[in-house]
Design a protein that fits this description.
Oligomer: single chain
Number of strands: 20
Strand order of the largest sheet: 1-2-3-11-12-13-14-15
Strand content: 15-25%
CATH topology of the largest domain: TIM Barrel
Number of domains: 3
């Protein structure tokens, strides 16, 4: 069985050459992520165009996800060799941008003292140093170093999200997004989301003419407002790094499972991210724990697993993708397909959707569940899901049928966005007015790719009722 779980690889200095990009595609990269927190906008646009060129030259569809930085708060620079903040020592936090040291940390956020309260735990960077705020005065805050270490450059500083007064996304985020919208970017990830309003501020809806909006769940507020965020988003990312700074580490695995389950109930693709194969930044093979982490994310039901520093700055970017692909493929083989669809149906029944009262989502739920059962009982060769927006395809993918899902759409952007969906091979087919012609075009495309053959028994799932967004037609047929 071919791998069904998708792989996202972050493109950076270690992986942005045409040669390496080709190797990443061959290794199994389905989506290329461009993080905008580092480097310039022009550098990111250049990488974007390079990925597009490689994808076109290779004849391989690769989605592109642009990750907006969000409200970044950083310290003023530490000296060249860094400063050691000793555990138990006291430091001062003050607004400023000039210079930081082992005793005074300047923060490039004017209202930092207004947004802090005594007892706040503040991580620096990726948690290399952690301090606890003790007192707050008019001009400075005093904090105790609870986890010591060396800080270099301008590390990020994490203010508790529920009091952060900076907007999400920032004006700078929206400026950068506009540049990528002009290029036709497939997906955009919004950082430090706290509410559905933050997602809507992106200003683009998840339809074929705009980027698919991915909300990153990395704050306590986002977890508390998860239902509304799911309703406002087109996909979700479980950003475990920052999430782990706002919750106890023991809570993180449970949060991952909860978020994935709610995304599946809502019909959204979900990405599991952060430190999945982190040791491969410097070594050619992962730890046993990392291998288990990737596999368990697959068993949880994640649509995609993501590599960050492993491919962006690591010494083994191609090997990282190859390794993740092998682990995910083996986990897919052990996936409990038999019980999964019933679990999804139960999740839908317990959710706040219209699935229980005959709404369009409920009709689609019933049709996709029936299609899953038909695929199992009739041993179908494939499922053809014909969709303009990708809604039908994503609805089918969450039931995890144990047969290939061919996502057929007349819109090129939608086909690109479907690279994120579990088990889906996306195709862009010729536009057609009638339902029968669309089916014919879809089958002809699949046959030309060697995926379908004459006499194959297939399921065709589509929506044809003009006044409803529901998926309302299932046909079982043989390929001629």
């Amino acid at each position: 069985m071919e791998r069904r779980t998708k792989i996202i690889a972050t493109i950076g200095p270690a992986s942005d050459s045409e040669t390496t990009l080709r190797e990443l595609v061959d290794a199994g990269m389905d989506v290329a992520r461009l993080g905008l927190a580092h480097g310039t906008l022009d550098e990111a646009l250049e990488r974007y165009r390079r990925v597009r060129k490689v994808s076109k030259d290779m004849g391989r569809r690769v989605g592109i996800l642009v990750d907006l930085p969000g409200p970044k708060i950083r310290s003023a620079p530490f000296p060249g060799d860094g400063s050691f903040l000793e555990k138990g020592s006291t430091i001062k936090l003050i607004p400023g941008v000039k210079q930081s040291s082992e005793s005074i940390v300047e923060v490039d956020y004017e209202t930092v003292l207004e947004d802090l309260v005594p007892g706040d735990v503040i991580p620096f960077g990726d948690g290399q140093v952690v301090v606890r705020v003790e007192t707050i005065g008019k001009d400075e805050a005093e904090a105790t170093v609870t986890s010591g270490g060396v800080l270099h450059g301008r590390p990020g500083i994490r203010i508790p999200s529920e009091r952060l007064s900076l907007p999400t996304p920032t004006d700078g985020d929206l400026y950068k997004l506009d540049a990528f919208v002009e290029e036709g970017v497939d997906m955009v990830a919004v950082s430090y989301v706290r509410s559905a309003h933050d997602v809507r501020r992106v200003g683009t809806e998840p339809h074929p003419r705009g980027p698919l909006v991915v909300a990153k769940i990395e704050t306590r507020a986002a977890v508390e407002n998860l239902t509304g965020i799911i309703e406002a988003s087109a996909a979700i990312m479980v950003a475990r790094g920052d999430l782990g700074t706002e919750f106890e580490i023991a809570d993180l695995p449970h949060l991952q499972k909860k978020i994935i389950a709610e995304c599946i109930a809502g019909g959204l693709p979900v990405i599991t991210a952060t430190q999945m194969l982190d040791s491969m930044i410097n070594t050619s093979s992962p730890t046993r724990a990392e291998a288990s982490d990737v596999a368990n994310a697959v068993f949880d039901g994640t649509s995609a697993v993501m590599l960050s520093g492993e491919t962006a700055i690591g010494s083994y970017p191609v090997e990282s993708v190859e390794t993740m692909a092998r682990i995910a493929e083996r986990a897919d083989q052990s996936f409990d397909f038999g019980r999964w669809a019933e679990r999804v149906a139960e999740l839908r029944q317990s959710s706040d959707s219209d699935s229980v009262n005959g709404g369009s989502q409920g009709i689609t739920d019933a049709m996709t569940l029936a299609t899953w059962r038909a695929a199992n009982e009739l041993d179908l060769a494939a499922l053809l899901c014909i969709s303009g927006s990708g809604f039908t395809v994503r609805s089918m993918a969450r039931f995890r049928p144990n047969v290939p899902i061919l996502g057929m759409t007349m819109d090129e952007r939608t086909a690109q966005q479907l690279t994120l969906s579990w088990g889906v091979t996306p195709f862009c087919i010729e536009a057609a007015m009638g339902y029968e012609e669309r089916i014919g075009n879809a089958i002809a495309t699949a046959k030309s790719q060697g995926i379908l053959h004459s006499n194959d028994l297939i399921g065709v799932l589509a929506g044809i009722t003009g006044d409803s967004p529901a998926t309302d037609v299932l046909r079982i047929m043989r390929v001629v």
